[in-house]
Design goal:
The chain is an alpha+beta fold. It is built from 4 helices and 8 strands; from the N terminus they run ββααβββαβαββ. It has an 8-stranded mixed beta sheet, covered by helices on one side. The longest helix has 13 residues.
Length: 168
């Protein structure tokens, strides 16, 4: 069996979404400002452009346990991105996500976060997934809480959330 057909390389499919690893062509299109007919009208958002710009510096973010595009199954359109920031630090891996404004309020971020977190917790040397959220962003706080994360620290205007494998 080739490595490209291993489960880790497969798209993550949820009830309403497909989480698919970025391709280098998509990274280039985001950075060049080239529009794709497969993108929602308001993709990419600023966060997507920032992540695409960091792939050169962080090639591990493009691995199967790295960053993925969030695709709405009903339309086939890219509506955001979600990712894990490699490498883990002492078994902790940070997650970040963003859904374009036109698709917010539908539970997509929670659905995607739950799915990618489940994959992350199967990765070697990972026992915890964390996320930092500004306290001024209640929708993102709700995403993490609905996805099973628990608040564990607060620093100034940032709330730190995490979810841990039951063995830790």
């Amino acid at each position: 069996m080739s490595s490209s057909s291993s489960p880790a390389h497969a798209d993550l499919i949820t009830e309403r979404l497909v989480l698919r690893p970025w391709t280098m062509n998509e990274v280039s299109a985001v950075l060049d400002g080239t529009r794709s007919s497969h993108w929602a009208e308001d993709f990419p958002a600023e966060g997507d452009r920032i992540v695409a710009g960091l792939f050169d510096q962080h090639p591990a973010w493009l691995t199967p346990h790295g960053h993925r595009l969030v695709i709405e199954r009903a339309s086939g359109l890219v509506v955001g991105s979600i990712g894990l920031f490699w490498p883990p630090s002492e078994g902790v891996l940070e997650i970040g996500y963003g859904i374009v404004a036109s698709r917010r309020g539908r539970g997509y971020a929670t659905e995607a976060t739950r799915s990618l977190t489940g994959l992350a917790l199967t990765a070697p040397d990972v026992h915890t997934v964390s996320a930092n959220v500004e306290s001024s962003n209640p929708p993102s706080v709700r995403v993490l809480e609905k996805a099973g994360f628990h608040q564990w620290a607060t620093e100034e205007n940032v709330i730190q959330y995490r979810i841990t494998n039951s063995g830790h």
